[in-house]
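Structure (tokenized):
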């Protein structure tokens, strides 16, 4: 049973035993912020309580429609996950206990709430719409991104909102691969079978050498195959910008809500440099 929630009172509702009915749904992969604390649950259901897999969904509080590409952060752990195109997300190996979840998306009010997590729970988050003038947001941020790229010491391939909105493929990995900016390969022959199903393998050839790709989603690094696997859930038509820095081995993906935070001064873009 889903508890009703108004737009003014955002809630995260835990539904028991949902996992048994969730087979066949697609979810995005999990990212971990480097240097985050190992754990700091406010309440833990026993020191030996096993970790659980949390399945979640983010919906529009008014229309009940799914919200794709929403960012869900476990504040105490610094772990970040994006919802897939159906509004779902999955967090593996999460210690049981009470955690603070911050959910954000462009055009919605931020939701920050604690929830107690146990086996078989579904975290349902409803976000209240907050109208925003996208064209005004674009004009304020786009010039700053262009200056940042122009001052970069190494080559940057970039695709902005206009080009991404016209993409034929609904998969950002496939979109990048068809741009012809690099030769994409599996990182090793032994792992080729694990990565040949991906639209974008996690290595590429640069100046005759195989380079490992690190994916950044809104400045959060997601190394290796986990990062490229994350891309399957992202529709390029829902993104703000994508940057490929071949000399740095970086693919940077930016969502609209993150760029809104940049404009409002709540965060800032990292410099277009290797090793930042």
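Design, position by position:
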């Amino acid at each position: 049973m889903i508890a009703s929630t108004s737009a003014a009172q955002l809630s995260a509702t835990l539904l028991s035993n949902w996992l048994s009915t969730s087979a066949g749904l697609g979810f995005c992969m999990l990212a971990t912020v480097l240097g985050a604390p190992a754990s700091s649950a406010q309440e833990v259901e026993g020191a030996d309580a096993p970790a659980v897999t949390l399945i979640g969904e983010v919906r529009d509080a008014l229309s009940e429609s799914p919200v794709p590409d929403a960012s869900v952060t476990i504040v105490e752990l610094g772990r970040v996950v994006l919802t897939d195109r159906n509004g779902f997300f999955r967090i593996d190996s999460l210690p049981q206990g009470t955690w603070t979840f911050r959910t954000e998306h462009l055009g919605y009010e931020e939701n920050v709430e604690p929830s107690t997590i146990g086996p078989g729970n579904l975290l349902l988050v409803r976000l209240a719409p907050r109208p925003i003038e996208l064209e005004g947001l674009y004009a304020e941020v786009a010039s700053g991104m262009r200056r940042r790229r122009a001052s970069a010491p190494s080559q940057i391939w970039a695709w902005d909102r206009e080009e991404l909105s016209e993409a034929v493929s609904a998969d950002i990995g496939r979109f990048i691969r068809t741009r012809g900016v690099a030769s994409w390969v599996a990182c090793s022959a032994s792992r080729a079978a694990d990565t040949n199903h991906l639209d974008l393998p996690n290595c590429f050839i640069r100046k005759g050498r195989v380079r490992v790709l690190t994916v950044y989603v809104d400045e959060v690094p997601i190394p290796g195959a986990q990062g490229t696997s994350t891309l399957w859930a992202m529709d390029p038509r829902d993104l703000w910008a994508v940057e490929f820095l071949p000399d740095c081995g970086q693919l940077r993906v930016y969502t609209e809500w993150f760029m809104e935070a940049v404009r409002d001064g709540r965060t800032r873009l990292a410099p277009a440099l290797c090793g930042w």
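Reviewer-requested clarification: Residues 1-47, 190-198 have pLDDT under 50 and may be disordered. The chain has six helices and 17 strands.
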